[in-house]
Amino acid sequence: MSTEKQPKDNYTAKLRLKSGILFVVCVLLTLICLVPIYMLIINATRSHVEIQTQVSFLPGSSLIDNINTLSTDQNFKSFDALTGFKNSAIIAGCSTFLSVFFSALTAYGLYVYDFKLKSPAYTFILAVMMVPMQVTSVGFLQFMIKLGLNDSFIPLIVPTVAAPAIVFFMRQYLQSSFPLDIVEAARIDGCGEFRTFLTIAIPMMKPAIAVQAIFAFIANWNNFYQPSMILISRKQDQLTIPMMINALKSNDKVADYGVIYYAIALSIIPLIVAYLILSKFIVEGVALGGVKE
């Protein structure tokens, strides 16, 4: 009995040790992710002098002062939260919808249909994914200027239809969890091809769409390079949140870190809201994937 029990006890001890190590690693990763956000919020409640002189993990008492300074001080008039939120929301919202929807449609076409150029088309999409945006930015800007689309949101929204990385992810998801028999059954029942995509494929792709929507929204909300390149005139009513924050940080006349931290804290609120709204679809997808019929 003792000889049979000893291997079982050794296995249990190893399992506990492995679980303990994984738990510690997860806690460390969580702290690495959350501590910078926590410090951002804490510094938003502290004054410029307090931030410069000491590091503190406790909230300060200057939040109201930072709010009043940002909203009333003429030195920070370049930051208009409502205008920045509106512009960033228009660009990020429209770009996210276009990139995710058309990428899902492209991935669906590459997975469901068989045609001669299927493999070369997918290879070309992967090749485009490897090209950095900075390589084509000069030619893109010149082209937009010739079309008269500079100082416009159109070049920041419409080109996001082509999102090779999202297409790649969507196609991999379809290969792992979308049976083609469903499409054949829909065709037999007389359902059109586009209707099949909208009513059958899209609901089954909710977890993948939610993940990519979060990533796309964050990327477009935080995008500074392209808006600063296209919006040449820097009109106040066209500035996005990253452009306004950059103007605050580059202000040589007045440097108030408390106000800057508060402005940055404001800018991440929509990202947190978007994650909270879409994360439930990710959890549902994981839960459904773990249930076997």
Question: If you compute it from the alpha carbons, what radius of gyration comes out, rounded to the nearest whole angstrom?
Answer: 25 Å
Strand content: under 5%
- Number of beta-strand segments: 0
The backbone outline, from C-alpha atoms, is flat
- The secondary structure category is mainly alpha
Measured as a percent range, the helix fraction is: over 70%
Task: Name the features.
single chain, 293 residues, mainly alpha, 15 helices, 75% helix, disordered C terminus
How would you characterize this protein structure?
With 293 residues, the chain is mainly alpha-helical. The protein is built from 15 helices and no strands. It has helices at residues 2-44, 48-53, 63-72, 81-112, 118-129, 133-147, 154-157, 164-177, 180-188, 193-204, 206-221, 225-230, 241-249, 257-267, 269-289. It starts with a helix and ends with a helix.
In short:
The protein is mainly α and 293 residues long.
Topology (SSEs and partners):
Layout: H1 2-44, H2 48-53, H3 63-72, H4 81-112, H5 118-129, H6 133-147, H7 154-157, H8 164-177, H9 180-188, H10 193-204, H11 206-221, H12 225-230, H13 241-249, H14 257-267, H15 269-289
